[in-house]
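Q: What would this chain look like folded?
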Amino acid sequence: MLRYGWPGPYPDSISELNAGETIWKVRFWAVVSFIVLGGAAIGAGFAARAAKQRVWLVLLVGLAITTAVVLVVAVLLTPPLASSAG
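A: My prediction, written as structure tokens:
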């Protein structure tokens, strides 16, 4: 029987290592994402001011688009409930 691509029983130590690595990667990419999104928001604010547009409106639209994209990605990456049942 293969479980998680591993023949035989799946030791807890391996699952703990995998979980720790996954959490570290998620935290790292979350920080990178916040830096990129913050830079994009600042850049959009300067671009809006240079184009004589309302900065708050540009940032609000950017926030709405970013939220929609994050929700779509979260839905696509979330496994169905039926497959997560052991």
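The chain has a mean pLDDT of 75.
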